[in-house]
Amino acid sequence: MKRYIKKFFDNEILSYLFFGVATTVVSVGTRMIIFYLTQQELIATALGNITGILFAFFTNDTIVFKQKRENWFGRLIKFSGARFFTFLLDMALTFIFVTKFPHIIGQFVGDDINIINTIEIGFAQVTIVVLNYLFSKLFVFKNK
User: What is the DSSP string of 93-133?
Assistant: First the structure.
């Protein structure tokens, strides 16, 4: 069993997808809990993203892309910059589809703001996962 687990995590794409799902669970879980407690979608989105970015950097740097410890701070800056771009995209999608024009989605779900928020999160996360992998692979974790 240990051999299969090692083989799985030695595959960069499978490892990225596994930790991408884990990052999404951390980020979305944080976001949904904060939204449930505060009903403040932008604050929930921001805190969910910050939590996800920190978790993702650690797992991507050490496990997925197997980077050496030197220059980790430079990678953190690049990683944070790339994630900041997708964070802004996430905030924009939240503002458009949950805050400003919730009826775009709401017309299909009885204008329930919790369902609207959940649907928007799903749409945004798929887009963001793809962009984050491309940014990480092409600009951040280029060398082992």
Answer: HHIIIIII-THHHHTTTTT-HHHHHHHHHHHHHHHHHHHHH
* 64-116: pLDDT as tens digits: 998 888 889 999 999 999 989 998 999 999 999 999 999 999 999 999 999 99
Our separate counts of H helices and E strands in the chain read 6, 0
Total residues belonging to the chain = 144
Q: Are 82 and 135 in contact (CB under 8 A)?
A: yes
Q: Please state the φ and ψ torsions of residue 44, each to the nearest 5 degrees.
A: -60, -40
From 4-8, 47-51, 96-100, 136-140, the region with the lowest mean pLDDT = 4-8
Q: If DSSP codes are grouped into helix, strand and coil, which group holds residue 141? A: coil
Of 23, 13, 6, 10, give the one whose Cα is nearest residue 59. 23
Residue whose structure tokens are 């974790």:
141
Residue pair 38/44 in contact by the 8 Å Cβ criterion: yes
